[in-house]
Amino acid sequence: MKQYPTAKATRLTMKHPGDLSALDQEIIEGRIKSADIVAIIGKTEGNGGVNDFTRGYFTQSLMLLLSKYLDATIEELAEKIPCVLSGGTEGVLSPHYVVLTRSQTEIPPASGDKALALGVAMTRPIEAWEIGTETHWKLTLEAVKRAMEDAQISNPDDVSFVQLKCPCFTVAAAKQAVAAGKSLCSGDPNRAMALSRVAGAWGVALALGELSEDQLSAEAMLSDYSLFSNRASVSSGVEVSAVEVIVLGNSPDWSGHYQIDATSMVDALDLDAVLKLRETSKAQTSEVCGVLVKCEPDRRGQVRGFRHTMLDDTDINAQRHIRGALGGLVASVFGDGRIFVSGGAEHQGPDGGGLVAVITKRP
Amino acid sequence: MKQYPTAKATRLTMKHPGDLSALDQEIIEGRIKSADIVAIIGKTEGNGGVNDFTRGYFTQSLMLLLSKYLDATIEELAEKIPCVLSGGTEGVLSPHYVVLTRSQTEIPPASGDKALALGVAMTRPIEAWEIGTETHWKLTLEAVKRAMEDAQISNPDDVSFVQLKCPCFTVAAAKQAVAAGKSLCSGDPNRAMALSRVAGAWGVALALGELSEDQLSAEAMLSDYSLFSNRASVSSGVEVSAVEVIVLGNSPDWSGHYQIDATSMVDALDLDAVLKLRETSKAQTSEVCGVLVKCEPDRRGQVRGFRHTMLDDTDINAQRHIRGALGGLVASVFGDGRIFVSGGAEHQGPDGGGLVAVITKRP
Amino acid sequence: MKQYPTAKATRLTMKHPGDLSALDQEIIEGRIKSADIVAIIGKTEGNGGVNDFTRGYFTQSLMLLLSKYLDATIEELAEKIPCVLSGGTEGVLSPHYVVLTRSQTEIPPASGDKALALGVAMTRPIEAWEIGTETHWKLTLEAVKRAMEDAQISNPDDVSFVQLKCPCFTVAAAKQAVAAGKSLCSGDPNRAMALSRVAGAWGVALALGELSEDQLSAEAMLSDYSLFSNRASVSSGVEVSAVEVIVLGNSPDWSGHYQIDATSMVDALDLDAVLKLRETSKAQTSEVCGVLVKCEPDRRGQVRGFRHTMLDDTDINAQRHIRGALGGLVASVFGDGRIFVSGGAEHQGPDGGGLVAVITKRP
Amino acid sequence: MKQYPTAKATRLTMKHPGDLSALDQEIIEGRIKSADIVAIIGKTEGNGGVNDFTRGYFTQSLMLLLSKYLDATIEELAEKIPCVLSGGTEGVLSPHYVVLTRSQTEIPPASGDKALALGVAMTRPIEAWEIGTETHWKLTLEAVKRAMEDAQISNPDDVSFVQLKCPCFTVAAAKQAVAAGKSLCSGDPNRAMALSRVAGAWGVALALGELSEDQLSAEAMLSDYSLFSNRASVSSGVEVSAVEVIVLGNSPDWSGHYQIDATSMVDALDLDAVLKLRETSKAQTSEVCGVLVKCEPDRRGQVRGFRHTMLDDTDINAQRHIRGALGGLVASVFGDGRIFVSGGAEHQGPDGGGLVAVITKRP
Fold first, then answer.
1. Could you tell me which residues come within 8 angstroms of residue D228 by beta carbon, excluding any fewer than 6 positions away?
2. How is residue D126 annotated by DSSP?
């Protein structure tokens, strides 16, 4: 009998970053099959910075659980299943994770309808000297296209949210590259991490037709903030060596009751955009299975003409500030603190604004 | 010719906690008369805790400015003009202050209309052993009634927001009291400060008929959170020895274009309450001259059934968390980061919820 | 052939809280036998507070490693091998851990000499209503005595350092106990944790003859700070249900080149005490294998007559302040940042002072 | 009768950053003449970062006090009397300030002896495009020489400590400069502040013969850390437009019982250097009137071969970490928490090390 792909998003809570009991329960009671898990996107209660180890702890605990069910080691699973975590549950935000699964169904897609579709892909390893360069965004562009194929989404407009994990060089790799006569995008590791995110975002923008190659240049990175993607959400870190891509969208070829809708916010006070998204996605009458937000404190030091103090605070990191504020806004719209809010949104949405996507399940 | 009282609220920005240049400009250009200033309510960019000195710095700078115009020393002015400051401009919040002035006008109140009215009063000094006790709330009750008279508000329903500053004993005063055989409400200074706020809130609740005396007891303080005022906003500190009261409401006997509206939020996600307040107050078509919020992280560790992490965070104080989240919500509704958001809201609004008041000027 | 007990302390570094590669290397290269590991005491780079998950992450990673070598699950190992961690490597402190092992040797103890000896013991589970009470300190007293026997130390003067992990009730257990008509030592979880540490410290003091039972009372807890142990280092948490005891001292019946020396500091500036300990322990000519410090910000708000600001800082937790300061002092004396510094030292050493122990290996 | 210059250092405590009552008392009781005050160096209890307003609050309060005694406005006094403040009293550090006064005496200097001498000078205003450049260090060199003349110190070896305040451009000034076709030392304000400190430090090193002009270049700034001054302590900020110089040393031409001694620490654990300084300065038998420390977290991420975590901590600023650790060490040596410890020590002492100076009064 003919089979159709179908995707599911399950939002679960944790008691602490090492607690995967909710997923274990889902597996034990048969609601989630461990082999169907494609990716996990979650929010842990760390500080979201370099020294946030709640992400590593959650990932180790997750892979430890899955290794009980799947015939693979913790290390093998960590390479196979992308686990995208943002640390920091400021304010009303609640620690949680969204499990994305993919399986086959005999129920054909409803005619004229689109359902949640998801696809993953990976570039080849990016060399230290390629990070944050044209090579980086070109390889990302290709990987996003392959992830779209994997998701059977041919129309870029049907892509709602592209989550990337981009590599970053370690100090050791940087030294080796320099010794070998190569030049790096930046000698400053924080700037290199940011440039890696920009290259990733631009790869997405190219794949979705938001930007064209002739607009892009090394000089425009972290400088011309009008060159952004409205659907890219990028994190970067030394724990990956290639770009990992998760494409979320809606496809007429997929079956199921789930859908994803997205919008961008022009600034950190753009309540209207989020209220409209609630309307569009019918979030009030459907079950909300995941809300994904990407944001950044406005670099110009103001929101709607009034000074903010996020960038000059020695006590609280600026990303923690903006996550708390945006989290308060978006959580109030959806009536739920289980919102994935991630900072570090250079060239991902308008400067000082953000992206919001919501996954719903129709009743 | 007959004169009528009229009140005005002017919202000004600061570049740093010692910057009063905006108020100086208002005075120089004649829009504010220094002698008309009744009270100031503001938000400075400190941490809002015991070691937040931005409040003292702003107050000193304010009184230094006013002493240039009024025939009084800095110390005399500090005793005369209540300056209520909340430290901490988390997230999108913007440092600012609202100058409340009161003057006389020949224009009579519009018939059938009510305008912004304000009154102030003060209790006698509260002794160390009276703080946080029945005496404290009874004296507050009387002072609120006198402030209502001062504001010419006879109907308690016309009171929208009562801001109090309550005294707290120093370690030295506590020692003296104990040596004199007196017992204190608590030996723990933080608990004593909280009990002082509760006694203040209950004084307001009694004056406005929200609670009756037989409901109140020392045992119910910080324990039965159903006993709250919906219109009290209380801070406490060692810098005052009496309870200072500012009553804000609307009165048929006052003239002018300003009005105040208020509501309470059932929890930290209660967007609907704030949207309704925006509607009621016609904030979208009027000029907003001040927004006042009081809030508290939910003591039960959850918001709408999901765990929050505010109370267990060793890195960021819980009050900073909730101010950032509520600030993000309320600022997005009014499209402006200049929101006064203050924590420490025990028995001021429902547990885990908050109070919001907005002062508008009709076009 | 006759066998004699012998103890060893190995100090290892970590790259992050999930990195146990240094221990793995020791095991692979045969310097440490996994079956000999009795306990681990370490310092991870978290914040040391309730929301410090680096301790859980390290413990999980440690047990995951040991489960590769020993025929036991992660859970079984976690119950068997005490892993005492203090989060927070403020200032010059360096993340590290000391692995304590115990084995048998044919080499008899040198006559007239004492060598490092260690013993462990555990009380029966402490019920929620027993925590922080006389029962708690009496059970601890017995357990310390058993741990001393295990260490073959009969003279209490030969005990240098007693590390305890004391239980604390969860909110759920507290509710159950109250429902069953039991009363708890305190309704405030933070105070209950502190009382649990005091009861533990007093159990040690009784076992070592530092205090006698008639001196102790519930009233004196967290009140009469002259009642302290000079050799107890206590942590408390919900992760244990019984009191876990590790006794470290020197015994004439043990063989080996290791020894432990200890002292107490009268206040946070007591450099002389630490310099003398360096002298006594011959730390400058021996290999230092572990330095253990317990300390607390002075509750009276002063150090040697001058105000400190640790207790009133809303930005940085007081325990982080004192660990950074004491860490700077002790690390400078031993010329090494790998110092275990733990706060929460109520009734463990003089108020505002601390304990320091050093394990050395003679050349 | 012949008059000789004499200097005095008085160390005073504060209850909070707005409390100058101790200085007021000194003036009232005649121990300090307000007109003799040359400079003030102090430590306030802020966070030491951009948003530390305790420095501005203290300065305003100081000038407010002095304006009561001297015929000058607050603004005039602020331009005339350098007030160098470092925010952040981490760990055992105690808020305090050292008042440096200069007067004339009829008592001639003891033959063969040197006494504390101090001199001040100022460069012309430094233009935005000159900050952090060769012009900046050349102008500083000249100003240090003038301050040495003012202090009557001809031998550079007699200079112990040179405190500078260097200007930094505001965003507005930067824009203007760029619009006028000028190029700035850096577009990044934090880097520009650091470069300003380096240029200042190099000006001192040139004046004292520690470095020669041909060793210096723009490329070596923040890169070749072997090019440092052992006696410069530099802060930078937008509140000054010229370089302010305070030279502290010992001169055979000055009279009095005060002296200053200084040393450098090779790293953050260099207890020996501080113990030797205590010896040299006879601090244990004299009255200590001020201890001045400059330090920096080691950029290489290690102290004596072991990893520190200061540079990667999102919760606590790296400068707060190192101040707490060095403060703990130095305060323990002098038995007093009133130590001025300032970070931001680029090219001021060896990388990862620091400078320490102590002012004593012979009995």
1. D201, D205, D210, D347, D348, D349, D350, D351
2. P
- Per-position DSSP letters for C127-165, written without gaps between them: PGGGTTSHHHHHHHHHHHHHHHHHTT--SGGGEEEEEEE
Facing residue for B322 by CB, picked from A89, A91, A331: A91
Nearest to C53 among A17, A64, A315 (CB): A17
Structure tokens at A160: 């709602």
Q: B210 vs B199, B247, D272, CA distance in Å? A: 14, 16, 68
Strand partners, D162: D232, D247
363 residues of chain C, pLDDT tens digit each: 899 999 999 999 999 999 999 999 999 999 999 999 999 999 999 999 889 999 999 999 999 999 999 999 999 999 899 999 999 999 999 999 999 999 999 999 988 899 999 999 999 999 999 999 999 999 999 999 999 999 999 999 999 999 999 998 877 788 888 899 999 998 877 888 899 999 999 999 999 999 999 999 999 999 999 999 999 999 888 878 899 999 999 999 999 999 999 999 999 999 999 999 999 999 999 999 999 999 999 998 999 999 999 998 999 999 999 999 999 999 999 999 999 999 989 999 998 999 999 999 998
Q: Residues A1-11: pLDDT tens digits?
A: 799 999 999 99
For chain D, 363 residues long, the average pLDDT of each consecutive 10-residue run is 95 97 98 97 94 95 97 93 95 98 95 94 94 97 97 96 91 84 86 93 98 96 94 88 95 96 97 98 96 95 96 94 98 98 93 95 91
Contact C313 B52 (CB under 8 A): no
- Please report residues of A whose CB lies closer than 8 A to that of D309: 51
User: Are A95 and B307 inside 8 Å of each other by CB?
Assistant: yes
Scored b (16 or more CB within 10 A) or e, D194-211 reads bbbbbbbbbbbbbbbebb
Closest by CA to C229, choosing from C207, C250, C255, C251, is C207
Give the ipTM of the model, two decimals please.
0.94
Q: How far apart are CA B259 and CA B9, in angstroms?
A: 10
Q: Is B18 in CB contact (< 8 Å) with chain D?
A: yes
Cα–Cα distance measured from residue C97 to residue B42, given in angstroms and rounded to the nearest whole number? 49
CA D295 to chain centre: 11
Catalytic residue among D235, D251, D264, D281: D235
Q: Is residue A306 less than 8 Å (CB to CB) from chain B?
A: yes
Q: Is C31 on the interface with A (CB under 8 A)?
A: no
Q: Which residues of B are catalytic?
A: 165, 235
Q: Is B96 on the interface with A (CB under 8 A)?
A: yes
Cα–Cα distance, B255 to B161 (Å, whole number): 19
Q: Residue C354, Cβ neighbours under 10 Å: how many?
A: 29
Q: Chain D window 35-64: which residues touch C at a Cβ cutoff of 8 Å?
A: 45, 47
Catalogue all structural domains in chain C, each as residue range(s) with its CATH number: 4-105 (3.30.1330.170), 115-246 (3.30.1330.180), 257-361 (3.30.1330.160)
Structure tokens at C331: 């690390």
Is the CA virtual torsion B344, B348, B351, B356 positive or negative? Answer: negative
Nearest Cα neighbor of A323 from A125, A48, A95 is: A48
CB contact (8 A) between residue A56 and residue C17: yes
B17 touches chain D (CB under 8 A): yes
Query: What is the distance in angstroms between the Cα of B96 and the nearest Cα belonging to chain A?
Result: 9
Tell me which DSSP letter residue C109 carries. P
Residues of C forming the active site: 165, 235
List the structure tokens of D53: 């307003």
Query: In the prediction, which pLDDT does A363 show?
Result: 86
How far is D241 from B163, CA to CA, in rounded Å? 43
List the chains bordering chain A where 3 or more Cβ pairs fall under 8 Å.
B, C, D
Q: Rounded to whole angstroms, how far apart are CA atoms B221 and C327?
A: 42
